[in-house]
Write a structure and sequence with these properties.
single chain; alpha/beta; 6-stranded mixed beta sheet; 25 strands; glycosyltransferase; membrane; Fucosyltransferase; XG_FTase
């Protein structure tokens, strides 16, 4: 393409010289006086309206005047690179890519624009279907004499077997059987002396072998004398997988044109790729859907392109370490916070999106885990997103190539970019985006990351010509040309740079062509100058030793030097004549600027402060203070810093719950807190109570303090939480103190819920060494004692009883739910409970409890909702995971859908029928949109000038494949509604690791994140889902359990209430009749053996 432009179009004239005449000191002083007065007048005119604007605090939308319209048109046409004759709908990316990109600071030269317009006319005249093309192809018959018509000549680019990146970089610059053995291969013909400089009749076509394995003869293509021969060949067939543009600059006949085409020499790929490469609507749909769903709301985007070369590519820890070392050393990513740096979540911090492209998803998974487990040291929220991870490169597979191209474009939209050494995929991304990347240096050997440094900043945004002709005709020019340098990460390669400050080579070039170049400032103390470059005021060379000159004005960036169009005999007089008056004027101007800036800044700060106060404090002023206390559930007075989640979770993330706690419940909780403080660990009452636990000691008649000891079982976190809440409800009803077993990381998960005391069972508890062995056969097990007739209504209650309320309990154990048995149990001081069930519904069927329960919970299906929000406050470490994940991935969404997926089969894992069931349920219930049909997908491709509704899908599962498939589904095709779908899964650890601290903390964070959803889908009988929808006050859609690996019909059902299901209810015995006749007790929607609470009229069951 580049060679076509250079060789086949005529050159344009150079611009006329521009002259600035000398100004006398007197006139200069008068002009500065007038400027100062004008500026002061403008300040007054501007500041008065601004004062009014900021005070009334009304945002005023900017009007789109003619200047704005012209600017938009120029951005749409990429500074004139694009013509305007195309049908926009047929290729949306052509004119819409500027709507996603920040305006490029690199503007195409007018000469390049004119060249492209002429090339388009030439292509239209000579392209397929024209008479000229017909004549040219007829000449390809080797037996036909070639006519002298030189109107149209062609370069035929043939796709090779190499990847998409190689193809694109070679396109900017192949017939399948052509190789170095082909008789018309130019290098072979030279080697066999079939042609030479004296050959008068060029062949009708030549094959140019410009692949990485080309020979010295093939490399003579880059020599001036060979180009003189090649230019007369009508047809050139090219196979290349390298970016050979830098060597074209070293061909003298091309260099003159190239300097005019690209005054900023490192913009060749940037301009030509944006002119030439416009993704199809299907690819552009992938780009826009990914960008709007995951990246558009970020304050900054970091692209990381990871390519592992080698026969055994994959995930390697040394590569992961290298990525982290590079991004943290270069301040591209923050380091994880230490304990003393825990983030302040009182407001939403800066959001940084990290876009990872790699064949292997483990790199993004590890990055995600790092910022999930610990907040960043800077307080930034870090969102990690990888569009696809297909593990194997599948070049020429349509969908794979489309995804690859979409990822290149997404990377090019980043603010900063990290790429892998010698990766053409990265070359394309950085060139399209106009980005100078950080390059991961070297290919780590022996699985060790490079010691120092791990990466280097690229000298330019140009790709590296990794197989440059370092020997031969260009050997000397490569070493002496200032805008050609060896690649940072690959010495055999070369790349283009911008002309440097004080480069005499650049002076000659700009003077020859009549160009005003952009001049790079020199680096001082290894710091990048700001601004990085300046436009020359004239095309004249700089006199490096003159006291006043154009180069001083540009290179020193001093506005009071004067550019001269020709030498002046007395340059120093101008500088001397300015004198004291000039200094006073300068001082006055800058003082005025400073004062005006301070005034403007104060107005702006005043406006911002008032706006922030309105945002943060408005709700506090308009709503009662008890919102922070969840309608009075919580008590004020806790140290907020020690447990941030206690008071902030309801204010920052949850929508106000429509379910308000009753005054009676609030008063009961306050009474309980007083009781717990009086009887809790460390008190005299507790000491006396533990002394009674000696089995041989007679129980005293002191009934002041009685206890429920909740013991953590081997079951998962969901089971533990629902049984803990049930046990607390029982303690509340019977005026007992609940103490929880702290040996299973409970204090790493939850804060203390009660003020001025502890709910943790002391480690020196007298029965601590025995309770793990308590089971159905334990002599003090209540069911066993009933079965053995060891107790009856006349028996003196023992000092403690073990209540076996696990899912495998017997009929005798279930007698716990009978009124008569409760009359006996209430007199036992210590009850040790093991349970993995939510047994609260059966407590409602005990007559002595029901009266209290009706008063505590007038809305009967709010038991778990209220008690869990009162009792369960995640520790700061867990809350950091919740807040960082929410802010980074969910906070920008218009709606959040939670999906909780549990596979109970053995072995568990990813199953297609489960995936089909999830899709069927969510689409049937209108929770997720359907995909646009193939026939309508063209019209469904979104308009990228504005963002659509963003729906975030939060997936909680041990298996990441479910979220991967959902993400892939909405990446490949648009939704029928136009909604943007963002799929996020915080963790996918494949195996449940109960009692592993970090695993349980992530699980609890996942539960809380699910509870923040607007709608939720859960798995049948999953206690993990029970806790999530109960905390959130959500009625879920429940996925039926599949049978015979087939999707159930219907796939899911809406829950009757937000209450968990008591999946092992006592359906027989004393409660059998009550279950059938009580209006607020129903069988679970998806499990007939279970019961649950629903809201119903205030009736006693016997009415």
């Amino acid at each position: 393409m580049l060679r076509n432009i250079d060789e086949r179009l005529t050159t344009a004239g150079a611009p006329n010289n521009e002259h600035l005449s000398l100004i006398s000191p007197a006139k200069l002083g008068m002009k500065l006086t007038r400027i100062t007065a004008t500026w002061l007048l403008l300040c007054i005119v501007i500041l008065v309206p601004l004062y009014s604007i900021f005070n009334i605090q009304k945002p005023i939308s900017t009007t789109t005047g003619s200047n704005d319209s012209k600017q938009q048109q120029m951005e749409k046409k990429i500074g004139g690179l694009l013509a305007t004759e195309f049908d926009e709908k047929s290729c949306l990316s052509r004119y819409h890519q500027s709507s996603l990109r920040k305006p490029s600071p690199y503007k195409p030269s007018s000469y390049l624009v004119s060249k492209l317009r002429r090339y388009e006319k030439l292509h239209k005249r000579c392209g397929p279907g024209t008479e000229a093309y017909k004549r040219a192809t007829e000449q390809l018959d080797e037996n036909q004499v070639r006519s002298s018509d030189k109107e149209c000549r062609y370069v035929v680019w043939v796709a090779t077997e190499y990847g998409l990146g190689n193809r694109i970089i070679s396109m900017i610059g192949q017939i399948d059987s052509y190789n170095t053995d082909y008789s018309r291969c130019y290098g072979t013909m030279l080697k066999n002396h079939a042609i030479n400089s004296t050959t008068t009749i060029p062949p009708l076509h030549l094959y140019l072998h410009l692949l990485h394995d080309y020979r010295a003869e093939d490399k003579t293509f880059y020599c001036q004398e060979n180009q003189a021969f090649i230019k007369n060949v009508p047809w050139l067939v090219v196979k290349a997988n390298i970016y050979f543009v830098p060597s074209l600059w070293l061909i003298p006949s091309f260099q003159t044109k190239l300097i005019k085409l690209f005054p900023q020499k490192d913009t060749v790929f940037h301009h030509l790729s944006r002119y030439l490469l416009h993704p199809t609507n299907q690819v552009w749909g992938m780009v826009t859907r990914s960008y709007n769903a995951y990246l558009s709301k970020a304050d900054e985007i970091l692209g990381i392109q990871v390519r592992v070369f080698g026969r055994r590519a994959g995930y390697f820890q040394h590569v992961m370490d290298q990525i982290l070392d590079c991004t943290q050393r270069e301040k591209l990513l923050p380091e994880p916070a230490q304990e003393s740096q825990m983030m302040n979540i009182s407001k939403t911090p800066k959001l940084k999106a990290v876009l990872v492209t790699s064949l292997h998803p483990e790199y993004s998974d590890n990055l995600k885990s790092i910022f999930l487990e610990r907040p960043s040291s800077t307080g930034e929220m870090v969102l990690v997103y990888q569009p696809s991870g297909e593990r194997v490169q599948q070049t020429d597979k349509k969908l794979h190539d489309q995804k690859a191209l979409a990822e290149m474009y997404l990377l090019s939209l980043a603010d900063k970019l990290v790429t892998s050494t010698r990766s053409t995929f990265g070359y394309v991304a950085q060139g399209l985006g106009g980005l100078k990347p950080w390059i991961l240096l070297y290919e780590p050997r022996n699985r060790k990351a490079p010691a120092d440094p791990p990466c280097v900043r690229a000298m330019s945004m140009e790709p590296c010509f990794i197989r440059a002709p370092l020997h031969g005709c260009q050997a000397k020019t490569i070493k002496t040309t200032p805008f050609i340098k060896y690649c940072e990460d690959w010495n055999p390669g070369i790349k283009l740079l911008v002309t440097s400050t004080r480069s005499t080579f650049g002076y000659v070039a700009q003077g020859l062509e009549g160009l005003k170049p952009w001049i790079l400032y020199e680096l001082r103390h290894k710091q990048a100058p700001d601004p990085p470059c300046v436009r020359a005021m004239s095309m004249e060379p700089c006199s490096l030793k003159a006291p006043i000159s154009a180069c001083q004005a540009e290179n020193q960036n001093n506005p009071f030097y004067i550019t001269l169009s020709e030498p002046s005999p007395t340059p120093t007089k101008v500088n001397m004549s300015l004198g004291l008056r000039m200094k006073i004027l300068i001082t006055f101007i800058f003082s005025s600027l400073l004062i005006g800036s301070v005034i403007l800044l104060s107005f702006s700060n005043n406006f911002d402060d008032q706006l922030l106060d309105g945002t943060l404090n408005g709700s506090s002023e308009s709503e009662p203070h008890h919102d922070k206390l969840i309608g009075g559930l919580l008590r004020a007075g806790f140290d907020e810093g020690s447990c941030v989640s206690r008071y902030t979770k309801s204010l920052l993330y949850r929508k106000p719950s429509p379910y308000k706690p009753s005054p009676y419940l609030v008063s009961k909780l306050r009474s309980y807190e007083m009781l717990h403080k009086r009887c809790g660990p460390g008190t005299e009452a507790y000491k006396r109570a533990t002394e009674q636990l000696d089995a041989n000691q007679e129980r005293s008649s002191d009934k002041e303090c009685r206890y429920v000891v909740w013991v953590a079982t081997e079951y998962g976190l969901g089971n533990r939480i629902i049984s803990m809440v049930s046990s607390f409800l029982y303690a509340l009803l019977t005026e007992r103190i609940i103490l929880v077993d702290q040996r299973k990381d409970i204090n790493d998960l939850f804060c203390e819920p009660f003020p001025d005391t502890s709910w943790l069972l002391p480690l020196d508890f007298p029965l601590m060494g025995q309770i793990d062995s308590y089971y159905k056969d334990y002599s003090r097990c209540y069911g066993t004692m009933l079965k053995n007739h060891a107790i009856n209504s006349t028996t003196t209650p023992p000092s403690h009883l073990y209540l076996h309320l696990l899912h495998d309990y017997r009929d005798e154990d279930k007698m716990f739910y009978c009124e008569a048995n409760q009359a006996f149990i209430k007199n036992v001081p210590w009850l040790v409970v093991k349970s993995n069930l939510y047994f609260a519904p059966s407590l409602w069927l005990i007559p002595s409890f029901q009266t209290k329960l009706l008063k505590m919970f007038p809305q009967k299906d709010t038991v778990f909702h209220h008690l869990s929000r009162y009792l369960l406050h995640p520790t700061n470490q867990v809350w950091d995971i919740v807040t960082s994940t929410y802010n980074a991935n969910l906070s920008k969404a218009d709606e959040v859908l939670g999906l909780q997926i549990r596979v109970f089969s053995t072995p568990s894992g990813y199953f297609q029928h489960v995936m089909d069931q999830i899709v069927s349920c969510t689409q049937r219930e209108k929770l997720l949109p359907e995909l646009a049909t193939n026939g309508s997908s063209h019209s469904q491709v979104m308009n990228t000038t504005r963002s659509k509704k963003l729906k975030a899908v939060l997936v909680a599962s041990l298996h990441p494949e479910y979220s991967d498939e959902l993400s892939k589904m909405f990446l490949e095709r648009p939704s029928s509604t136009g909604e943007m779908i963002q799929v996020y899964q915080p963790s996918g650890e494949r195996v449940q690791q109960t009692d592993e601290k970090l695993h349980d903390q992530k699980a609890l964070a996942d539960i809380y994140l699910l509870s923040l959803s607007d709608n939720i889908v859960t798995t049948e009988r999953s206690t993990f889902g029970y806790v999530a929808h109960g905390l959130g006050g959500l009625k879920p859609w429940i996925l039926y359990e599949p049978k015979n690996r087939k999707v159930p019909d219907p796939p899911c059902v809406r829950a009757l209430s937000m209450e968990p299901c008591f999946i092992r209810a006592p359906l027989h015995g004393c409660q059998a009749k009550k279950i059938k006749t009580t209006p607020f007790i129903k069988h679970c929607e998806n499990w007939n053996l279970g019961i649950k609470l629903v809201d119903a009229p205030d009736k006693f069951w016997w009415w």
